[in-house]
Each structure stands twice: as structure tokens, then as C-alpha cells.
Amino acid sequence: MARKKIALIGAGQIGGTLALLSGLKHLGDVVLFDIAEGIPQGKALDIAEAAPVEGFDAKLAGTNDYKDIAGADVVIVTAGVPRKPGMSRDDLVETNAKVMHQVGEGIKQYCPDAFVICITNPLDAMVLVLQQASGLPPHKVCGMAGVLDSARFRHFLAEEMNVSVKDVNAFVLGGHGDTMVPVTRYSTVAGIPLPDLVEMGWITQERVDAIVERTRKGGGEIVGLLKTGSAFYAPASSAISMAESYLLDRKRVLPAAAHLTGQYGVNDMYVGVPVVIGENGIERIVELKFTDDEQQMFNHSVDAVRELVDACKKLGAL
Ligand code: A3D
């Protein structure tokens, strides 16, 4: 059986980490694409030279030519600009929408059968621009944010309760911004929901509230520390778990920005919801029953995404 091919559009901080993780996890051959000359070539060669030490056989190539992504099974898109301190994700709309158009054209021409995962911010709007520009069916194009936001939530909860991160499950839904919705009722430790853990005295409601707030601002916390860019290790790990679920048909249930057609009362927009990812891409959208409070928070988050989509429409990007 031929090796799978993973195309990484954008060879920056996340792109380079994605390439290394793809090698370490034996996902397939990797092509790193970037408009910057030398960067994708240099990173590909550097990671190829790690392969004998790590013991993986993937071929790694760097390129500035879209034709080299031909036939890719998975495309992960990080092309664009990240946030600097003081910037919100929304400040990136104009620049990154143009980039999504170029990337969409490249995908349309060279790998129309790929499963595409967008990471470029502002995520929920950029994935819609990318899907439309690529012409791929919506179930083959999704956005990574929920796995990362949930991983942040899981990390903070595990640290607080002094338990293994493996046993902490959590869902963060809605748009990838400060209005995202960490759903505490569906967040568990070994199957025990957070509200029960509060009753059991494992964690106080005040700490849960503080962790929800820290999760919402998790990206900004890292931007503030790094000063020159945004998070890249955890975003790369998160996207790789989605790619793996597609390539290995694992049918994992993960939060992802998916194209909604009426679910959760949302139409023709990408918003973070739980989905099943398998060999057919986004195979199912899981519709949770929200409480009134949760529905209100979710609607508020969807409104923030709608504003970004409208901004893209004004710019002529959609
Ligand atoms: P960075 O290290 O700057 O890499 C971006 C790369 O894109 C650079 O190497 C650029 O040369 C390249 N690039 C720019 N324009 C183009 C183009 N037209 N075609 C191809 N390549 C191009 O950024 P990063 O890797 O840290 O972040 C990448 C994106 O991910 C940014 O938009 C971030 O805001 C976003 N991000 C999203 C999340 C989510 O959870 C959704 C988390 C972290 C970062």
C-alpha cells in the first residue's frame, strides 16, 4: 500500500511542528509549501535529517510550487499571519482572507479529493472562505480550534484536580474567540461530570469559573508570553489528531469547526461543534441538547462568527 501524502500549506511555526509530528507518528510523506523561499525546503531537510534518529521513513519535501501538493490525502492550512500582542484574531481578516483564496485555488487544482483542515485565524470565517475558494464539498473541509480549546480546558482541569490529563474529557464549542463555550456539563473526569465533581468537593465552582475564563483567553495568554507570535505546539498536535482520525478511519468524536446546515439553528456557517471524523471526512455532526444558558452562550458565540463572515462578504472574499 502506498504511503499517504500530507500537504502542509504554510511552513511557519505550526507548519514545521506539523511536519515533525507527521513524521514521528508515521502518517505518511510530507510536502511543506510556503511562499517564503528556502523556509519550507530548510525545514523539510532538517526534519528529514531527524528521521534516521527517530526511525521514520517518510519523505519530506519543501516547495514554493503548488504542483508539488498534487494528490495529497490531507491538507493542513496554516498560511497567513498570526497575532501579535494587542491584536485580536479578527484583526487578521483582510490579509488572511486573501491568502485563503490563493490556497483554495491551489487545492482545487491539485488535490480536490483531499481532506482539508484549516487552522488560519480568524478560524471560523477563514475555513468558510477556504471551502468556497477550493470548491471542495463542505464535509471535506473543516477547521481546527475545538480540539485545542478543549485540550487547554483539559490541561487546566487536570492540573487543578491533580489527575491524569488522559482521564479528563471536555468539550469547548462555538466560535474560536473570546466567546467560545466550554460546556462544563459535558466535561468529565473518568466519566464523572464537572458539576458532580464540584458537589464531591474535587473542585470549587469558583475555580471552574476561573478555568473557563482562562480557557477562553488561552490563546492570548500565550501570545502575551511569546510576544512574537502565537501558540504552535498544541495547535499542531490538535490538527494532527484530526488528520489521524481521517487517515486511519478512527471515527473519533472531536470538536471541530464544521459546516452547519440548520444544526444548532445555524445555516451556511462554520462553527465549532462535536463531529465524527472518519474516512469520509466529517461523517456526522453531533447535536447536543443545550440548557437555556448554554444555548444563549452558543448563540452569542455564533453572532461573533457571523460578524466576521459579514466582514469577509464586505471585502468581497465570500
Ligand atoms: P507563522 O509562523 O507566521 O506561519 C505562517 C506561514 O504562512 C509563514 O511561513 C508565511 O510565510 C506563510 N504564508 C503567508 N502567506 C502565505 C501564502 N499566501 N501562501 C502560503 N504561505 C503563506 O504562523 P503560525 O504558524 O504561528 O500560525 C499560522 C496561523 O494559524 C495564523 O493565522 C494563526 O493565527 C493561526 N492559529 C490558529 C489557531 C487555532 O486554534 C485556530 C491556533 C494558533 C494559531
Report on this structure.
There is one protein chain. The protein has 318 residues and is α/β, with parallel strands linked by helices. The chain folds into 2 domains: 5-143, Rossmann fold (3-Layer(aba) Sandwich); 146-315, L-2-Hydroxyisocaproate Dehydrogenase, Chain A, domain 2 (Alpha-Beta Complex), CATH 3.90.110.10. It is 44% helix and 22% strand. The protein has 10 helices and 12 strands. The chain has a 6-stranded parallel beta sheet with strand order 3-2-1-4-5-6. Helix 3 (93-110) links the parallel strand 4 (74-77) and strand 5 (115-118). It starts with a strand and ends with a helix. The relative contact order is 0.14.
pLDDT < 50 stretches: none
SS class: alpha/beta
Name the overall outline: globular
Order of helices and strands: EHEHEEHEHEHEEEHHHHEEEH
In the CATH hierarchy, the architecture of the largest domain is Alpha-Beta Complex
Let me know the largest β-sheet.
6 strands, parallel
Helix count from the secondary structure assignment: 10
User: How far is the first residue's CA from the last residue's CA?
Assistant: 39 Å
The unique ligands bound to this protein are:
3-acetylpyridine adenine dinucleotide
Q: What value does the average pLDDT take? A: 96
Q: Looking at this structure, what is the CATH superfamily of the largest domain?
A: Lactate dehydrogenase/glycoside hydrolase, family 4, C-terminal
Round the Cα radius of gyration to an integer and report it.
Answer: 19 Å
Helix content: 40-55%
The first-level CATH class of the largest domain is given as: Alpha Beta
The portion of residues forming beta strands comes to 15-25%
Q: What is the number of independent domains?
A: 2
> How many beta strands in the DSSP annotation?
12
Question: What is the CATH third-level topology name of the largest domain?
Answer: L-2-Hydroxyisocaproate Dehydrogenase, Chain A, domain 2
Give the strand order of the largest sheet, numbering strands 1, 2, ... along the chain. Answer: 3-2-1-4-5-6
